[in-house]
Amino acid sequence: LPNRFNKMLSFHSFPKDSELRTQWLIKIRRDGFTVTTSSRIYSRHFETGEIFVSSSGKRCLQPKAVPSLFHWNNFSKKTERLGVWERRPRPVHTVAMATVD
Prior knowledge:
By secondary structure, this protein is largely without helices or strands. The chain has a domain at about 10-75. The chain is about 15% helix and about 10% strand. It has two helices and four strands, in the order E-H-E-E-E-H. A two-stranded antiparallel sheet has the order 1-2. A two-stranded antiparallel ribbon has the order 3-4. It holds the Pfam family THAP.
């Protein structure tokens, strides 16, 4: 249900797919919460790329979108940590090519 006074805000129903719904429930961290047909999640909990505007002007979620932005993570996602191979400086080796006669 888009807010007619603010085109940047929207509320989104829980997915019908049980696996995706479970992911949402884990992310929202609400003990004892039961999803009903009127349960909604505010658009602020989704990354910008997970929301698009349909041809009819409705703000919709990408099919596999999962809410990830909450007050406990300061409404931001951690940047992915580089693997050990990328974090460590590596010496540059020059390899002499052996010629075969």
